[in-house]
Predict the structure of Putative Poly(Hydroxyalcanoate) granule associated protein (Phasin).
Amino acid sequence: MADYNFGDGLRTVFLAGVGALATTAEKGQELVNELVKKGELTVEQGKALNTELKHKAEEVKDDVKAQSEKAKAEAARTEDAAK
């Protein structure tokens, strides 16, 4: 267990989260575009919704990044205490 690098694990989890977030944002935009095509949303409503989705995605990304940094710092303290 001493050979496991917590930083690598956290990095992998963080990158997976970013990938999931990017996929979700793309799918959200596709859905909005489809609704605009069908006439269920106006172009202006679609633009507003896309903007809101982008802001929410940025907030989530920033939150995940902050949590990742906090977890990484805690893991480093735990490793130091175990030595």
Q: What stands out?
A: Residues 60 and 66 are 10 Å apart (CA to CA). Helices lie at 6-38, 43-82. The mean pLDDT is 79.
